[in-house]
Design brief:
With 231 residues, the chain is mainly beta. It has 2 domains: 96 residues, Roll (SH3 type barrels); 104 residues, no CATH class. Helices cover 12% and strands 39% of the residues. The chain contains 3 helices and 18 strands. The strands form 5 sheets. Strands 1, 2, 5, 8, 9 and 10 form a 6-stranded antiparallel beta sheet that branches. It is globular.
Length: 231
């Protein structure tokens, strides 16, 4: 076979492999009992909600909140371990579709609703202006938790802001975060809030962009990791 044809075939194979590896559908299968009802069981309010299985945190499922599961993912491995995720409609002050680790929920019954039946996933462009280290690696090390930056003043943290909406009120006050180092993951689509991770914990919360040096719109200028813009 001509070398040029071999090169084209190799490129086609590589593109097909990358498309498969990047597909969220490879991590998602139909739930074995679609419509089952669950509740979030983490009393520490650390049952975070992801935009896709093992994806970016878009909110928190507070203790006792009802979850109407429509999907269950295949096992997903990230920096917290390997877990399956329940995908569906999360009630409470989140009121939207998302994914929660299966070990953070408990079965409550077969009653359900029809929300999120097509998909429980949310594209990044729907809730984020830009994100730090979008692929989880910077070519040298992993950075799935975000980029380090100091909070410049005592600042309130919130469990939810419904980041896919503009000017949505913050709910689930979680106390203040002092002048300390945090890891920021992304800026919300309306530039009002930043999702942060408290180092050494499983706590992910939203804080006002004004709490961080230069405000949320300037975070990308100080970031040591790659930035990906969505809008």
């Amino acid at each position: 076979m001509h070398m040029r044809n071999i090169g084209r075939l190799a490129l086609a194979w590589l593109l097909a492999a990358l498309a498969f590896a990047g597909s969220s559908a490879s991590n998602v299968s139909a739930a074995t009992a679609a419509g089952n009802q669950y509740t979030c069981t983490d009393a520490g309010h650390n049952a975070w909600i992801a935009n896709e299985p093992g994806g970016l945190v878009i909110g928190n499922c507070l203790y006792g909140t009802l979850v109407y599961r429509s999907f269950i993912s295949n096992p997903v491995t990230n920096n917290e371990g390997t877990y399956q995720y329940n995908g569906g409609y999360i009630t409470g002050d989140f009121q939207g579709c998302g994914w929660i680790r299966g070990d953070k929920t408990a079965f409550q019954g077969v009653r359900g609703r029809t929300n999120c039946t097509g998909s429980a996933s949310i594209g990044r462009a729907s809730f984020a202006h830009y994100a730090s280290c979008p692929a989880g690696k910077d070519g040298i090390s992993t950075c799935q938790d975000g980029s380090p930056l100091n909070v410049r003043a005592d600042c309130p943290m919130y469990a939810n802001v419904r980041p896919w909406l503009r000017n949505s009120p913050a709910t689930g006050y979680s106390g203040p975060v002092g002048r300390t180092a945090v890891l920021w993951r992304y800026v919300t689509a309306d530039d009002r809030y930043v999702m942060i991770h408290l180092p050494g914990t499983s706590i992910w919360r939203f804080i006002s962009g004004n709490c961080l040096l230069n405000g949320s719109e300037e975070l990308y200028r100080l970031n040591p990791y790659p930035i990906e813009f969505y809008r």
